[in-house]
Design brief:
Structural class of chain B: mainly beta
Low-confidence stretches of chain A: 17-21
Order of helices and strands of chain A: HEEEHHEEHEEEE
Largest sheet of chain B: 10 strands, mixed
CATH class of the largest domain in chain B: Mainly Beta
Largest sheet of chain A: 5 strands, mixed
Structural class of chain A: alpha+beta
Distance between the termini of chain A: 36 Å
Pfam families (chain B): DUF4198 (PF10670)
Organism (chain B): Blastopirellula marina
Number of helices of chain B: 2
Number of strands of chain A: 9
Strand order of the largest sheet of chain A: 4-3-2-6-7
Helix content of chain A: 10-25%
Mean pLDDT of chain B: 92
Protein name (chain A): DUF2271 domain-containing protein
InterPro entries (chain B): DUF4198 (IPR019613)
Protein name (chain B): DUF4198 domain-containing protein
CATH superfamily of the largest domain in chain B: Immunoglobulins
CATH topology of the largest domain in chain B: Immunoglobulin-like
Oligomer: heterodimer
Chain lengths: 176, 268
């Protein structure tokens, strides 16, 4: 057991070395969809975006909605229920958006990772921003959470907020 | 039967000035839509309470639906029921639709064989039905517009292009981009020109569950603009009216102008 430890460390450090240049997640967003005991459960629609100080959308990070069967109105019909997201960006987008649109997710924690060179962050000018996560569930409620942050980060940054109804823990981690 | 029906017809044909308590309205099932070919159902009624159809249906003869590209859309499943009229509007294009009832009526009266004759019609039927030599002819024109707006996708402004006739609303704030806690600014035109000094009345729906109408009165400024503070989300009705002598029919002495619209204010 003891003798194996250096090997593990060696393998770990090697894997880090290998991974590092390929992908560095400068921004990590973690979104928890709570498990709910309701008679009729639908997975929530969730939107994640970055807003500047004028409430303008600086980057769309994700929108999860029912995407199956093209031409079936079910998918995009309910998107305006993500009220803020729809108003700020959704209604003027040509959906689906590559790399942003995704299927609804089950209850649990879902991580999103972005590097500085990703299209979502590469155009982000230095300044004050807010990460916004909005969730809306059919026959359920709606909730919106915000985490303010500065970009770029001079030192490692981490903050989290907790939803009361439709969202669990939402956290934002930024590595300089 | 006829006698009791007469006032109803009067209300439906010539949109009353605010002296009447009746409110004329269109109520869309939704105002902000998305998806493949969404559709709205619209209720159209004349009533005292907002938005309850418990009085008269609104006649749909002069219904004009303008698509985002300014083409005209035919309503579907149109019906006039006892208390309300209904119709569907398929929203095949992306953008803002203007759903309007544009009335242009005339009231006339003259002396015939020593008796006062009353007549109601339109500029088109005037020459046919009113004797050219009518004695003591009195004619008044009424131009009324009842509107609402719905948007599929992002709001657009083409459908608001003025026709230059009667009272029309031009958005400064788009009617499908109204949120509680914010302000909405709109401009009123009369015959295509900004109109100062119009009194605008704004009432939130759900009057049946309140003791008072709680109407807000506003006045258009020199640019013809007025600003509403939306304190709560909900469906709102606004109206304004005025009178002038700019008649289309030379024989008409005066003209009554009215405008009413239904707006939805969304929660933040």
């Amino acid at each position: 057991m003891l003798s194996k430890r250096p090997l593990i460390l060696f393998v770990l450090s090697l894997s880090l070395l290998v991974l590092q240049p390929v992908y560095a997640a400068e921004m990590m967003v973690s979104v928890e969809i709570p498990r709910l005991k309701v008679s009729e459960y639908h997975r929530p629609y969730v939107a994640v975006w970055i807003q500047d100080e004028n409430r303008k959308v600086a980057a769309n990070l994700a929108v999860w909605y029912q995407m199956d069967s093209p031409g079936d109105e079910v998918g995009t019909k309910w998107l305006p229920d993500l009220r803020q997201w729809w108003r700020r960006t959704g209604r003027s987008l040509d959906l689906p958006v590559d790399g942003v649109s995704g299927a609804t997710r089950p209850a649990g924690t879902h991580d999103l990772e972005f590097s500085k060179s990703d299209k979502q962050l590469s155009k982000l000018k230095p300044g004050k921003y807010t990460l916004i996560v909005e969730a809306a569930r059919e026959v359920g409620g709606r909730e919106l959470l915000e985490i303010p942050f500065n970009w770029p980060a001079e030192k490692p940054f981490q903050d989290e907020v907790r939803g009361k109804e439709e969202l669990g823990k939402v956290s934002l981690t930024i590595q300089p | 039967m006829l006698r009791s029906f007469f006032p109803a017809i009067a209300i439906l044909v010539c949109l009353p000035l605010s002296a009447f308590a009746h409110k004329v309205w269109l109520l869309p099932s939704q105002t902000v839509l998305s998806g493949t070919e969404p559709l709205v159902t619209v209720d159209a009624a004349v009533s005292n309470d907002l938005f309850y159809f418990n009085h008269f249906p609104l006649q749909l003869n002069n219904l004009v639906i303008t698509a985002p590209d300014r083409s005209t859309v035919e309503p579907e499943n149109q019906a006039t029921l006892r208390y309300r009229s209904v119709f569907d509007v398929p929203l095949k294009q992306e953008g803002t639709y203007r759903i309007a009832i544009n009335n242009h009526g005339l009231f006339g009266s003259w002396e015939e064989n020593g008796e006062r004759r009353r007549w109601r019609g339109t500029p088109e039927t005037f020459a046919k039905q009113v004797p050219a030599d009518a004695k003591n002819l009195q004619v008044s024109e009424s131009v009324g517009r009842v509107e609402t707006f719905v948007t599929n996708g992002a709001p657009t402004e083409k459908a608001f292009k003025s026709t230059g006739k009667g009272i029309e609303l031009v958005p400064v704030t788009h009617p499908n981009d109204l949120y509680s806690g914010e302000k909405g600014t709109f401009r009123f035109l009369v015959d295509g020109k900004p109109m100062a000094g119009l009194t605008v009345e704004v009432i939130q729906g759900g009057t049946r569950y309140r003791d008072a109408q709680e109407e807000v009165h506003l006045t258009t400024n020199a640019q013809g603009e007025f600003t509403v503070e939306w304190k709560e989300p909900g469906m709102y009705w606004l109206e304004t009216s005025t009178q002038d002598s700019n008649t289309q029919i030379p024989q008409a002495q005066n003209r009554r102008l009215s405008y009413a619209a239904t707006f939805e204010v969304l929660p933040q």
